[in-house]
Amino acid sequence: MASKDNQGSGAFIRTESAFRHFISPEPNAQFPAEKGRYALYISPTCPWAHRTSIVRILKGLENIIDLYELHPSMGPKGWYFSGEGSSLPADPLYGFKYLPDLYKKADPSFTGPFTVPMLWDKRTHTVVNNESSEIIRMLTTAFDHLLPEHLREVNRPGGGLYPKHLQSSIDEVNSWVYNLINNGVYKTGFATTQQAYDANLYPLFEGLDRVEQLLSSPAPSDGGSPETKSRKYLLGDNLTETDVRLYTTIIRFDVAYRPVFLCSLKSIRHDYPSIYSWLRRLHWDQDSRETNAAFHSTSAPYLDVYGPSYAAARHKKVFGGQGPLIVPGGPTPLIDQL
Ligand SMILES: N[C@@H](CCC(=O)N[C@@H](CS)C(=O)NCC(=O)O)C(=O)O
């Protein structure tokens, strides 16, 4: 996973993403939104990549942006195409076997980290962007003029995934959810000293407590009505990008972060009833027009792969690949029905 040298403290420090261009709806932009021009490279186990594959489906962009899936675990040379399961046998554009080859094609001087998700421009043969939080914003708004009316942001329930009236609340919640939870599980699981582990484990669960409290409070639109027990989504009655960004961490929690990354104080299923019901509603929703099965179709096939792939990642990162690799079993079931 993308990280810097921890300067001896045992702390995991995430590296800033390197490619930060934006796709724009303007036809004369450097990267204009066009059908068939861009490709998303992902691994289905990566939570940052998972954000982008969810939003691609939520927005109905399957015929506009290609999706190229790599093997669920990294190999010695990084992410690669294996032809196993849903991984493509090789890069469909240039026949490469390894993701780093694409980065090198875009910029021969780039030395990594070679991360997923990565958004590629087929026209100019370069990386547009490799920062998931920015990729999902582009997918949310830049292609709307190519989409049917009901999929455009202005016509979605509540004004879309990042509506103007909620932007400051979304940014505020995203910020602490990222620090304490999305990145918190990595800071806990990749700590190489007891001190660094302790310093991140407790804040992670304070973050989860805060989400539990948020989800069990009435939606702002209820005006605090005592009859309403909880809100449907993190920001109220409608799905926003904050739900997407939290979902990809929570769906991995009991099956991977808790057993493999030692995020062991509590589990989602036994200790966080509001988070677990929010998670199951999103995960099992296969028919609503609001989600278009985006959550289920991008996680159900991989639930049993998260544990082994995170076990391999931690084994490599924390133990340098030395010693036996043990993959914990369970939990059973991997997720409960609604
Ligand atoms: N900030 C990036 C982080 C992406 C990231 O760390 N991806 C990991 C996989 S979960 C990766 O590709 N790591 C490759 C490496 O470290 O070599 C984002 O949100 O897009």
Automatic annotation (TrEMBL):
Residues annotated to bind glutathione: W79, E131, S132
Residues marked Lowers pKa of active site Cys (site): Y257, Y302
A GO cellular-component term linked to this record: cytoplasm
UniProt-annotated catalytic positions: C46, Y186
Short name of one Pfam family: GST_N_2
Cross-referenced InterPro entries: Glutathione-S-Trfase_C-like, Glutathione-S-Trfase_C_sf, Glutathione_S-Trfase_N, GST_Omega-like_C, GST_Omega/GSH, Thioredoxin-like_sf
Ranges of residues in domain GST C-terminal: 163-305
PROSITE patterns the record matches: GST_CTER
A molecular function (GO) term: glutathione transferase activity
PANTHER family, alphabetized: GLUTATHIONE S-TRANSFERASE (EUROFUNG), GLUTATHIONYL-HYDROQUINONE REDUCTASE
Protein name, as recorded: Glutathione S-transferase
